[in-house]
Amino acid sequence: MTAPAATTDPAQPAVVTALRVERAALAGRLPGLPALTIGMGPARAGRLAGGRRGLLLVGVAGGLAPGVAPGDLVVASEVITETGRIPIPSAPLLAGALRRRGLRVHVGPLLASATLVRGKRREELAATGALAVDMESGAVAGVAAGGPFAVVRAVVDTPDHPLLRPGTVVRGVTALRALRAAAPALQEWAAAVHRRDVVLASPRSFCAGVDRAIDIVERALDRFGAPVHVRRQIVHNAHVVQNLQDRGAVFVDEVDEVPEGGRVVLAAHGVAPAVRAQAEERGLSVIDATCPLVAKVHNEVRRYAGRGDTVFLVGHREHEEVEGTLGEAPGSVLVVEDAAAAATVEPVDPARVAYVMQTTLAVDEAQEVAAALRGRFPLLAAPRTDDICYATSNRQAAVRAIAAACDLVLVVGSANSSNSRRLVEVAEREGTPAHLVDDAGEIDLAWLAGARRIGVTAGASAPPHLVDDLVHCLRGLGPVDVREERVTDEDVHFTLPKEVS
């Protein structure tokens, strides 16, 4: 760390502290990163020169909100000043980096005060919604002038642990240790600050089947009131599930968890006939949200098995869609997970065989498995139309169109989303590093350090606003030029079941 001086490169991000003790806590932990100590209070921010590429304000603060304890870190999502609120878009990225280091982190508003805040005034300011209060953030944000800016504050005192108490020294040491432990994440933030291009793959996010499934649950809640039970996750996305839970949906693993005579929605991935029979035995009102393209595969299995064929089900054995499809004719269906399995699978009669596919597979890998099966079984019957759904195919084609020209591909989607995981694999097969993230908070800042062009897409079960949020966060690290690469338009719509139409 270097002493504050006019000769520090303004094109380089800098760490700003108000107090020498704050700067001392970071000593030796931020190699090559300038540290500028400005003194306590908003007026001292004038010591900072404008035009710097990024400013990271680090130090101690007073806690306001319940649950914010001494030693906790507060990452400001915005700074509340007398004249308004200053957003800090990169907050989720920095908070994620800190949490990955085992630190206790809160993300939310930070209040900028011109003076020290104590006593009842502290309790009054908590009503603003701010997590903590400091004296420098508003002024330093003004110097940043809309450029890359972030604030990390370690809490020393709270309403329950006032500043002028004997324990303040111990709490201060704890807070400074938290700042010291935060140093690697601070350096990652600084390394990620630069101009970049973002290429949005299109189509991305919700498909017609996902839209339909979510709409079914929302309409059921509107029509029948809470609770509405849903067997398994309606679609494989944590944000969607949480939003529906907040509205009154109750997710269960099996229908025997639904009160007798209750109402249950069957998820988009489809279920085995045994599940429907169990629901009927319990007198449940069933609303079927199975994607019509998944229902098509179920129909094919019934048709092939009904004529005596062994049905090869190409897919991942543990996936819910495969479980449901297998249940249509368990004595006639063999799951084939990859080309190696296709080379060894043995049907009852090689002359009476057919295949179907999980709808969310990687297109190229699915074709490889199908080719291996056709090579072994010349009389193999195939579906009349492709089982891999249009949305899966389109999103993979869109990623393939952008990946090779990008330094990094970010796929928004939950870890249990098959189609989202396949998008990562498609990008990687194009030679580009790719990562699956549930939201912007899961992005590792280290991925961004050398990435000047980032491809962004989302699985068919991921809400589109998560992509917007991600791009917004990247803008907090520097100017972002966004363009969209569209490979096709989608205009598919599915009708709703009669129970909610």
Summarize the structure.
This protein is of the alpha/beta class and 501 residues long. It has 16 helices and 20 strands. Helix 13 (390-403) packs parallel to helix 14.
Give a verbal description of the structure.
With 501 residues, this protein is of the alpha/beta class. The protein has 4 domains: 14-192, Rossmann fold, CATH 3.40.50.1580; 196-204 and 391-486, 4-hydroxy-3-methylbut-2-enyl diphosphate reductase, catalytic domain (Cobalt-precorrin-4 Transmethylase, domain 1), CATH 3.40.1010.20; 208-290, Rossmann fold (3-Layer(aba) Sandwich); 293-376, 4-hydroxy-3-methylbut-2-enyl diphosphate reductase, catalytic domain (Cobalt-precorrin-4 Transmethylase, domain 1, 3-Layer(aba) Sandwich), CATH 3.40.1010.20. Helices cover 34% and strands 22% of the residues. It has a 5-stranded mixed barrel with strand order 3-7-6-4-8. It has a 5-stranded parallel β-sheet with strand order 18-17-19-9-20, sandwiched between helices. Helix 7 (238-247) links the parallel strand 10 (228-231) and strand 11 (249-252). Helix 2 (91-99) packs across helix 5 (168-192), helix 9 packs parallel to helix 10 (320-326) and helix 13 (390-403) packs parallel to helix 14 (418-429). The radius of gyration is 28 Å and the shape is elongated. Mean pLDDT is 94; it is low at 1-7.
